[in-house]
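Obj.: predict assembly geometry.
Materials: sequence records (below).
Method: joint structure prediction, all chains together.
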Amino acid sequence: MANETLGSDTVLWLGEKRAASRDLIAAKFRVIDKAPSGGERFGVIADSETAAAGLALALDRPDAVTALVLLGPRLIHGDGRVADEALIARLASLKVPLLTVFGTKDKAAPPEAGRHYRERLAACNVVFVYDAGAAMGDERPEAVADLAIDFLHRGDTFLVRQQSDLLYR
Amino acid sequence: MKAALFCTSRYIGDAPQGVWPVPNEYCDAEIAEQSMAVTMEQFRLADVFGFDWVTVAEHHFSPLSLTPNPMIFAGALSQVVKRAKIAVLGPSLPTLNPVRVAEEFAMLDAMTGGRLIAGLMRGTPNEYVTYNYNPSESRARFAEALEIIRRAWTEPQPFGWQGRYYQYRSISIWPRPVQRPHPPLYMSGSSPEAGELAAEQHIGLGFAFTTIAAAAKASAYYQAQCREQGWEAKPDDIIYRIGFHVAETDEEAFDDMSKTAPRVSLTTANASINKAMTETAYYGRDESQVTRTATRTLQDRIDSGQLLVGSPETIVRQIERIRKEIGAGILDCPLAAQLGDKTLRSIELFGTKVLPRIREL
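Observations (raw structure tokens):
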């Protein structure tokens, strides 16, 4: 797997600190809990509680934030209703690669919400984590961590599979 | 009730039986071509004589069926069958790429103007040898693939999938299905596991090559599970698959059946596969599987609800039992006998003499 193509091995973790997926990500990245103020670049992972803060940070500091991963964001509901109009109005101007992740069993941030992010920002990536609810980082930690790690490493180019399918040589 | 004609497109030449895979050195290309032409004509007649659906299915490496990809046959059928719905019952889902399955189903729905019935099967045990998948993971793969297909049909924006058995980064199929929100979905299986998943996923359930007694029990369980999930399964949600041969009289029909080749089962044709499947608990909590493949006499098979044989009058009575005991609203009927014109006559009699009398059941 290509490393640091986005230019940072640091991740700002805004989510629940006890999530099992955080430990898996910490094995690959330097995980920090506070945004550095200087010129350092870093990726950002936020969960349902901190998605607004994560998005605001990426909007405000596009030069510092390399990529943004939102796990189960509740900024837009499944029916398209918006909680914070002012913040969501800025989504279309986001310059940072964005991955929104929805658990297929999450009632508060249902997969149907994903399309609304994409309608507002065509470059937004939407991925569903199968058989996971709001606590996806604990329910399917490897699945969530692998996805986030790949996106933090490669940004939008994560669309193209790099893992080999070779059985034997 | 509704009825479907189901053809596996059986190879009409000589071929070994009781083995699987069947060596394809016995497959004569011309006879294979004729076999498929015969099937196409049978389906065309079914459409003319009022069958509600025509059904194709997936089976591999055997003269029992020349439609290893039923989607291809269904594509050809879309140009021949003008009225009936085209039921693909179905792809062996856990051994296929679910996005491809969603795409092919959507194509068929578009090509038929919304006449597709989409069945999803776990497949007979031998299918797991076909593409080299582990059968012990088949239920989990099935459940996940089903969700992917439904998402692929209904999501208006590209989405990725981080599953247990499947991973995709971006899915947005073209064409979308014509039927909204999506084509009718069925799965098959008489195990409690199948009934539970179908109820949870709010889809129809089919019982194939079983007995009335076993299907009645499985159907009652499925209907109870549906109520538990907050919905009521209707007769149209329940399919019973049963072979048929109709003639003018009972005597003639029985006489015809005595001239047909003995029934072969893909499931038991290879003892090693069957043994391995039993060890992987492939059949789940399905007790009927143990007895249903046992050899039976023709009369036994009629009495237990594995075959419809007789005059139209006799067959209507047999179907009344299925409606009453299983609650099935759809009969999926394979041809029990391949006897040329007699088989075509059987299709005609079923369509013109049986179907009108079971409509109100």
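Conclusions so far: The interface with chain A takes residues 144, 147, 151, 155-164, 166, 169-170 of chain B (CB under 8 Å).
To do: check interface contacts against the pulldown list.
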